[in-house]
Specification:
Length: 691
């Protein structure tokens, strides 16, 4: 009753703002609906060049070299660049895309995994009466709806709880969340609602109960960001775009326009990073969609161009799934330093983040220990004291660079642009910068509209609203059952394949090897704790994977979920790729080393290893630590830094003690506090038998 009274008391105050926003919403909704109807009709007229087998990477490189002139060359294979390529090719423009690393190797694979309008942006829009910010949220909510429709296998609705610890906050946040629903209009995923304290704790039992008043639950979308990016790029390839990863721009090509007497960008000198071969790709229009590296390409165009990118690092951590319910996220709207922290279930693990700190631009950002500890501290503030949030529970951590930008078109070039900007240089280079993951499609549409106009390209309007992405065709929520029945896959593996590959999961299943067991019949796992199977490595090559890092980080997400499990899977991944790509033994060693370096630095293994050998949490003398270290190394003969059931079995057999595998696994599971299948030294010290 108290909750209802508090909410009713706020209704009169909020109604004026609600009505004003509602009127504005309906007008923009009507205009977009009319445009959408014409676009959906146009989509039906787009022909797909490659229905079945995609061209190989070598065939794509040949197309880049052999084509006399493209209409559009996109530089950058992140979400925005891939979106630009898809938008261009479906307008019947001859399209090319080059990416110096792998598709989604940068910021696009290191997000919070949310497809959202931005609750905090709406709050700022209302408080500051900022129309631009409001329209940004409105646009993002429209794109959220579209993305959920065009890639249903890679996306899902996610309820997010906002716990309330002060009575006055309940009506305040309720009004804000209701406006969020209202701005979404007909595209509201599900209506938000209020929970009593009892119900909130029932749905999120890990929540701190002291002083909890109640909670508000609203809905946003969630996705597998790297595979979504890949789906966009592969869809562009299917419609005929020539796309190539590991192809970098050495310099821009220019020619003098006879009519204007000015130099104009007419393509790029490119280099195949794998072979070192260089070649020219000529195009009427070049689009700079390089995210944090925007300024590097702008300076290739003109060294005098000022920097417009102001990079900010966002760190996320992954902790075991038992820290959050399977189907409920958590939002901390006001951390100790004013930031927002999300606490979300993802791939049966829990993601927590993000931070927002100035950083240097680098292709290999490293998560800093202070950022990891900041997130852990904020998580502790919202979870029950019964739940011990431990540094050793961080299974992976990563940093993504947000490419915040200043607008070169604005008089005030120092102020950060909250939305994306499209800029066309004097030489015709089209730059798209800023924005957010959710709005990649509308950013691409705006970019191509500007490019078509500036370069007099013959093209119609965008056709990407409602255009289904790779794997969406033939996907159904129950298709995993057919995978189990028709191929003999484990249920968990079948569910994973369906949600990662959609309708293409059948191709992965056909490639799966027989296990030699009664069940499952096919589908050998790369590591026992995760549903990734060996045939995914083979299929990854068809999806243009060129390195072991591509497989552990972006074709599968193993490196983002558990760095130790990823390291365990690496030898087998390298072996499979080596056979498929005819790698030499030297190349295999190089791949293994590079992938381990990636896990060590970029996925937080270094910070984790240093913390796990720090015994500051345990009150022991140096002599005691040394004694326990000797005991630990009796099991860890290979100096791996952890103990497995195999190590324990070997030691027990040496003293004629035999324990069946299941019992041994249960014993180690009690000591394995972070549930990664391995007992590190820090866990060994905290186990009662060790002491």
């Amino acid at each position: 009753m108290a909750i209802r009274k508090a909410v009713k008391g706020t209704a009169a105050v909020a109604s004026g703002g609600l009505v004003a926003f509602y009127g504005l919403t309906q007008l923009t909704e009507y205009r977009k609906r009319q445009a959408r109807l014409s676009r959906v009709e146009a989509v039906e007229q787009v022909n797909m060049a490659f229905q079945d087998e995609l061209p190989s990477r070598q065939a794509q490189l040949t197309a880049l070299r052999a084509t006399q002139e493209f209409d559009v060359l996109v530089v950058g294979g992140g979400a925005t660049g891939s979106g630009c390529a898809l938008d261009a090719v479906t307008r019947d423009l001859k399209t090319a895309l080059v990416e110096r690393d792998d598709f989604s190797s940068g910021t696009s694979s290191r997000s919070t995994k949310l497809i959202h309008g931005g609750v905090r942006y709406l709050q700022k829009a209302i408080v500051k009466l900022d129309y631009e910010q409001y329209m940004m949220v409105k646009e993002a909510l429209h794109e959220r709806s579209n993305l959920l429709n065009i890639a249903p296998h890679l996306t899902a609705l996610l309820p997010i709880m906002l716990p309330i610890y002060k009575w006055w906050q309940l009506p305040y946040y309720w009004a804000g969340i209701k406006i969020y629903d209202l701005v979404a209009g007909a595209q509201c995923l599900k209506s938000s609602y209020i929970l009593t304290k009892t119900k909130a704790l029932e749905l999120f039992p890990m929540l701190k109960r002291d002083k909890l008043v109640g909670a508000i639950v609203y809905y946003d979308g969630q996705h597998n960001d790297a595979r979504m990016n890949l789906a966009i790029a592969l869809t562009a390839a299917r419609y005929g775009a020539a796309i190539a990863n590991y192809t970098e721009v050495v310099h821009l090509l220019k020619r003098v326009d006879p009519q204007m007497g000015k130099e104009r960008v007419c393509g790029a000198r490119c280099r195949d990073v794998i072979t070192g071969q260089e070649f020219d790709v000529r195009a009427k229009c070049v689009i700079n969609a390089t995210g944090p590296f925007t300024d590097a390409l702008r300076k290739m165009d003109d060294q005098k161009n000022p920097n417009i990118c102001q990079p900010s690092a966002g760190v996320h951590i992954v902790i075991p799934g038992y820290y959050s319910p399977d189907n409920m996220g958590l939002l901390d709207p006001a951390t100790s330093d004013g930031r927002v922290i999300f606490f979300l279930p993802w791939e049966k693990m829990t993601i927590a983040g993000t931070t927002d700190t100035p950083t240097e631009i680098t292709p290999h950002p490293i998560p800093m220990e202070e950022d990891i500890n900041f997130i852990l501290t904020e998580v502790r503030n919202y979870l029950s004291p019964d739940v011990e949030v431990r540094r050793g529970d961080v299974l992976a951590a990563w940093s993504g660079i947000r490419p915040l930008v200043t607008n070169p078109n604005s008089k005030d070039t120092q102020s950060i642009c909250r939305n994306h900007i499209v800029h066309i240089s004097d030489s015709g280079l089209v730059t798209i910068a800023g924005g957010k993951w959710t709005t990649y499609r509308s950013m691409a549409e705006d970019t191509l509209d500007a490019a078509v106009k500036a370069h007099n390209l013959s093209a119609g309007p965008s056709k990407t609203v409602g255009l289904m992405l790779e794997g969406a065709k033939d996907w159904t929520p129950t298709m995993y059952i057919r995978l189990v029945q028709d191929y003999g896959l484990e249920v968990e593996v079948a569910q994973h394949l369906a949600s990662s590959y959609g309708g293409r999961a059948y191709e992965v299943a056909k490639m799966a090897h027989v296990t030699g067991k009664r069940w499952p019949i096919v589908g050998k796992r790369l590591v026992s704790e995760f549903p990734y199977i060996e045939s995914e490595v083979q299929y990854a090559i068809k999806e243009y994977a060129c390195t072991a890092i591509d497989v552990i980080a972006r074709r599968t997400r193993l490196g983002f979920l558990n760095v130790q499990a990823a390291e365990e899977a690496l030898p087998r991944i390298v072996d499979i790729m080596g056979k498929q790509l005819t790698w030499s033994e030297q190349r295999k060693r190089e791949e293994l080393s590079a992938a381990k370096q990636f896990l060590y630095y970029e996925m937080g293994y270094k910070a984790r290893s240093e913390q796990l050998t720090d015994t500051s949490e345990i009150t022991l003398t140096p002599a005691e630590v040394g004694r326990y270290m000797k005991r630990f190394h009796k099991f860890d003969k290979e100096n791996k830094g952890f103990i497995t059931t195999v190590d324990v079995q070997r030691v027990l057999e040496s003293i004629n003690v035999y324990i069946d595998a299941d019992t041994l696994h249960e014993i180690l599971n009690e000591v394995d506090l972070n549930k990664n299948g391995q007992v590190e030294f820090n866990e060994f010290l905290q186990a009662p038998p060790a002491r």
